[in-house]
Design goal:
alpha+beta; five-stranded antiparallel β-sheet; 3 helices
C-alpha cells in the first residue's frame, strides 16, 4: 500500500492525480481505465476539498492498493471532515433536459458507473470512500 496525505484543497487534485498515475504506470494500466480513475479522483477529491472542512481546510489521505488475480486497484479517500455519504444521493435523471435537472450528483453517478466497486463508511470520526477498478 502506498499513501499520500495532503491538504484537502482543490489545488491538490493535481498532486493526488499524479501520485495515482505514477502507481498506475507501474502496472501498465490501460489508458481507458486510467482516464476513468482520473475522472473519479477529480470528482471525489474535489468534493472533499470543497465540502469536508468548509470553510476551513483539513487533511485528506489517499491510499493506493493493488489486488492480484484479477489485477485491480483500490483507491481509498480518507478525511476527518463532516460525515457525508455521497452514495446516499438519489441518482440524477439522465433523461431530463439540462434545465430540468437538479444541480450536482452527476459526478458521483459517473464514478459509480465506471468503477467496479464504490463503498463508503464513516468510522472513528473519518469519512472513508473506497473505489476499485479492475485492470484485467
Amino acid at each position: 500500500m502506498k499513501q499520500l496525505t495532503v491538504e484537502a484543497a482543490v489545488e491538490n487534485i493535481e498532486t493526488v492525480t499524479a501520485f495515482v498515475a505514477e502507481e498506475l504506470e507501474k502496472l501498465n494500466c490501460p489508458m481507458k481505465a486510467e482516464t476513468q480513475i482520473t475522472i473519479a479522483i477529480d470528482e471525489l477529491f474535489g468534493n472533499i476539498a470543497r465540502y469536508a472542512y468548509y470553510p476551513e481546510i483539513g487533511q485528506a489521505t489517499v491510499r493506493f492498493d493493488v489486488e492480484k488475480n484479477p489485477l485491480a486497484v483500490i483507491i481509498t479517500f480518507i478525511d476527518n471532515g463532516i460525515p457525508f455519504n455521497p452514495l446516499d444521493r438519489a441518482e440524477p435523471d439522465t433523461h431530463a433536459s439540462a434545465e430540468d435537472r437538479q444541480i450536482g450528483g452527476l459526478g458521483i453517478y459517473l464514478v459509480k458507473k465506471t468503477m467496479n466497486l464504490v463503498e463508503y463508511e464513516y468510522k472513528d470520526g473519518q469519512n472513508i470512500l473506497k473505489i476499485k477498478k479492475n485492470l484485467a
